[in-house]
Amino acid sequence: MTQRVLVTGANGFVGKAVCKALLQRGDSVTGLVRRAETGEPGVREWCFDAADFENLEARWPADLSCDAVIHLAARVHMMRDTTADPLAAYRATNVTGALRVAGAARRAGARRFVFVSSIKAVAESSAGWPIAETDQPAPTDPYGISKLEAERALIDYGARSGMEIVIVRPPLVYGPGVRANFLQLMSAIARGIPLPLGAIDARRSLVFVDNLADALVHCTTDPRAAGQTFNVTDGRDLSVAELARALATQLHAPARLVRVPVAVLRLAGRITGRSAPIDRLIGELRLDSSHICERLGWYPPHTVEHGLLETAAWYRATH
């Protein structure tokens, strides 16, 4: 059965993959975006540029109804946030804004709201065992705190309104169009730059963007997803060294990985004032994603190797 789905942040990295997956399913898709761009052909574009979705309900198009929402739009994690009050800024977009979208969509007929959160709502690292959905959340930065507060506010709204809320917590997402640290890593490998990653054996969960998009589509359609929280990963965790070697293979570049002891990397982080990014690089962050498999019968349709192949092919074609 096809649906009418509203996707916020539809022109973003994940949003484009989600729209494509919905269109392939035969759904009618509306993309709620801040500025007009070239999105997926077949997506109805609704440009709405008010901060934090203020007055969204009043400006809702009269001819737009929807059955479900996939909410991707967010104030994203920034390494150097110069805002005077970062937590307030994150809350305004990620909590208040999300509730405004949910309320407006509910009054337009939406029965389900799929909220794309982050594993940062729970933790920055795992301590020897994968993080499960039932683990006690302990976010450590304003972004993670705002995502957790949004999850709880939406669950409360769902209980009051009858709207079905689904929470999805991905780890780092990669794929064609990826930016930030993953792109920097690919760029360094492609240029043959020696990297001090050879001794890092801590494993980290990742999710290929098309795997995440497929999971989000399932979360809009499967009745068993209502009221659930899901970790979504590729199902196979790589160490940073393994990831770098795999990328080097796909980029047709040498893997120049220097075995620098982890203790030396930590010391370098303290000396340079970059302890937080170094800790993220060398620390373990594994997610247990068995719940979505057991509850929905969902498994990642693409392997890690396929995801890295697609990502490297995009990089070679565009850089």
Description:
Helix 2 (86-107) packs parallel to helix 3 (142-161). With 319 residues, the chain is an alpha/beta fold. It has a domain at 4-176 and 207-235 and 287-301: 3-Layer(aba) Sandwich (Rossmann fold), CATH 3.40.50.720. It starts with a strand and ends with a helix. The radius of gyration is 20 Å and the shape is globular. The model has no long low-confidence stretch (mean pLDDT 94). The protein has helices at 13-25, 86-107, 142-161, 180-190, 209-221, 240-251, 262-272, 275-282, 290-296, 304-318, and strands at 4-8, 28-33, 44-47, 68-71, 112-116, 164-169, 172-174, 203-204, 206-208, 229-231, 238-239. It is 41% helix and 13% strand. A seven-stranded parallel sheet has the order 3-2-1-4-5-6-10, with helices on both faces. A two-stranded parallel ribbon has the order 7-9.
Task: Give keywords.
Rossmann fold; globular; single chain; 319 residues; seven-stranded parallel β-sheet; 41% helix; alpha/beta; two-stranded parallel sheet
List the helices and strands and how they pair.
Layout: E1 4-8, H1 13-25, E2 28-33, E3 44-47, E4 68-71, H2 86-107, E5 112-116, H3 142-161, E6 164-169, E7 172-174, H4 180-190, E8 203-204, E9 206-208, H5 209-221, E10 229-231, E11 238-239, H6 240-251, H7 262-272, H8 275-282, H9 290-296, H10 304-318
Parallel strand pairs: 1-2, 1-4, 2-3, 4-5, 5-6, 6-10, 7-9
Antiparallel strand pairs: 8-11
